[in-house]
Structures are given as C-alpha cells and as structure tokens.
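Task 17 of the worksheet. Students: predict the tertiary structure of the chain below and write it out as structure tokens. Keep your answer in the requested format; marks are given for formatting as well as content.
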Amino acid sequence: VDVEHPEWGNLPEIPSPAVYSETPTPPVGVSPNVGEHSEEILQMLGYSPSEVTGLVSSGQIKKGAGKSKL
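Model answer:
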C-alpha cells in the first residue's frame, strides 16, 4: 500500500501483520517530520510559548516543517 507524503510523494507502507476477516486495517499514514511536533510536546510539558521560541531560536530544538496547531 502506498501513502501520499506531502514532500516526498507516494511512499510504500508496510502493511499491518494483523489480518482480520471482518475488520479492514486502514493505512496508518506518513510519519511526522523531524521536529514537527516539538513545540506542541514542549508546551504540553509546561514550557511557555516564549521558552519554546527561545529554544528554537538558539538551535536547541528543530522546528519541523509540519503544520503547527498553536
């Protein structure tokens, strides 16, 4: 099964090893980019938006190319 990646086009996905007779297993989708969820995770851990911005600005964390929900 191929999945569509926004940057790399169609990529093959390894199918689930579990096969059910009456329940289809949908494709999982693409993996997140490096750093794509860093901001959300740090804020969930209690970092303020300004602290996260400082970490990104100083290069201590990578800001991913994905769409941020912040």
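Marker's comment: The first strand starts at residue 2 and ends at 5. The chain has a mean pLDDT of 82.
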